[in-house]
Every structure is written in structure tokens, then in C-alpha cells.
Amino acid sequence: MGARRGDGSAMTRAQWLWAGAAFALAASPPPARAGVAEDLGMSDAEAVYCESEVAQVENRLRIFRAQGLSPAEQRRRNAGAEENVADCRRRFHELRKADEDDEAVRAEVARRLPPNAGEVQRDRAEREVRLERARAKPRSALRDDERKLLTAEEERVHRERAEAERVRDPRFRRPAVSAMLCLHQRQLSRARTERAEVERLGIADKNRVYYLKGEIRRLEENVAGEREELSRVGGPLPCSEPRVASLERCAAMGSARARDDEMCSSEELQELVHVLH
């Protein structure tokens, strides 16, 4: 997490750069960008940020001049060092642009969310804004972090589409739907047994009787729908089939508990449990 400014907000990466450059300029003003920095048309802030790269070019020039090399030969031999300066200037402007983008993103997030929005809401909104801004740019203009963000989003969408297609595949669904049929048949049998017992004993619990009637109707509908779906893929698998039995157990636990259960933790079972819920 970044350091805090006087107003309590976090300093961005480029703000550290500006602060450092400003401090250096105030402590020791540069000699009007003399030498290489002046020749290359560098600003004071660029000269401070790329001080080591500029110094390398200047030191090499002094050596070449002492050797009596022509200006053309000096430039030829210094081409690599000058390219380092150009790379440094590009990094400088990328950081400055990134800081401007960060400020714009924060302003847009603040505009979209109420003041009392939580951390999760802010993180989600910030991601959405950054994605929108990155998508609006040509690929050639994207920074590395924007390119990575877009790639990660594309991969996430691809995974979700592939999962959705697989979940709709009847062959993939057959074990899962068979497990649900087994579970619902057992639950239906218990509900009917309890209703018969309540009616036999004449228990005057109208709420319980009403609940059991609704539960039996719901389970009957579930069983009928599952049998119909399975009839199109070869019929239900036996409840004793190991994968079906494991899935029935995981389904009975509910998806939240199943995720934390060691017996339901395999990737295959987790995918099938997702189908169930």
C-alpha cells in the first residue's frame, strides 16, 4: 500500500516520481539542462529522472573527445547509451500518463458510487472503469498493465463461456442430474412417509401438514423434470454408481458446505456440484 499524503489519500507511483524530482530540483537546480540533456530537448523533470542515463552519455562523450574522435564517430559509438536515455524518457512519460489515468479513474469511480460505498464495490467499479478505458484505446497505445488487464478479462470470459457450454452438455450433466434424481426420490419418500404418519396419528399441526403437501408437490415436480431430461441421454445412472453416490452426498450438503468438504473437493466433483446448484 502506498504512503499517505496530507489529505489521507494514497500517493500514486508517479506522484512519488514528481515528489522526488521536485525535491531534487529544489535542493540543487540543474544548470539549465546543460550538455546532453539540453541537446536532446529534455525538460528539467526528465533530466532529473534520467540523471544516470544522461551521465553515462556525457561520460562516454568526454572519453571519445579525449581520444580525438570525430563528432560523427562519437555519436555512432554512443548510440546505445543514447537509446538508454530515449527508453528512460519513454518510461518517464508512461508514468506521468499512468498517474493522469489513475486520477481520472478515481474521479470516475467517485462519480459512479455513493460516498458510503464499501471496499468491494470500489474495487469492482475501479476494475470496470479501467477495462472501459483500456478497451477504448488502440492496442498499440496500451500500457503493459492495461494489456495484462484486458488479457485477464478475455481469459475469464473464455473460461465462463467454456464452462457454460460444458454445463449445458447433456453427457456432462447426466451424472449430476442422476444424483439429483436419487436425492429427490429419497427426500420424496421420506416426505410421503412423514405425511402418512401425521395423518395416521391425527396430529393437529396444520402448519406441518401444509408444509409437507407443498414439499411433496415440489419434489414430485423435480423428479418428473429430472426423469424427462435423463430420458434424452440414455436414462438415469444407478444411485449406487460411485460418482453418482458421491455427487448425491455433496448435493445434499449444499454448494457452500460441499466446497469445504474434503470428499467433495476434487475438480470434477466441484464442476458437477456447480451443475446441481
Structure description:
- With 277 residues, the protein is mainly α.
- It folds into two domains: 13-114 and 124-130, no CATH class; 169-276, no CATH class.
- Helices cover 76% and strands 0% of the residues.
- The chain is built from 13 helices and no strands.
- The longest helix has 34 residues, at 79-112.
- The model is unreliable at 1-10 and 22-33 (pLDDT under 50).
Keywords:
single chain; 277 residues; mainly alpha; 2 domains; 13 helices; 0% strand
Structural class: mainly alpha
The major β-sheet equals: none
Q: Helix count?
A: 13
Spell the H/E element sequence: HHHHHHHHHHHHH
**What's the alpha carbon Rg, rounded to whole Å?**
34 Å
Instruction: Give the overall silhouette.
Output: elongated
- Straight-line N-to-C gap: 38 Å
In terms of DSSP E residues, the strand content is under 5%
Structural domain tally: 2
Short description:
The chain has 277 residues and is an all-alpha fold. It has 13 helices and no strands.
Explain the layout of strands and helices.
Blueprint: H1 13-27, H2 36-39, H3 44-49, H4 51-66, H5 71-77, H6 79-112, H7 119-135, H8 144-168, H9 170-201, H10 206-231, H11 242-253, H12 255-260, H13 267-276
Helix pairs in contact: 1-6, 4-5, 4-6, 6-7, 7-8, 9-10, 9-11, 9-13, 11-13
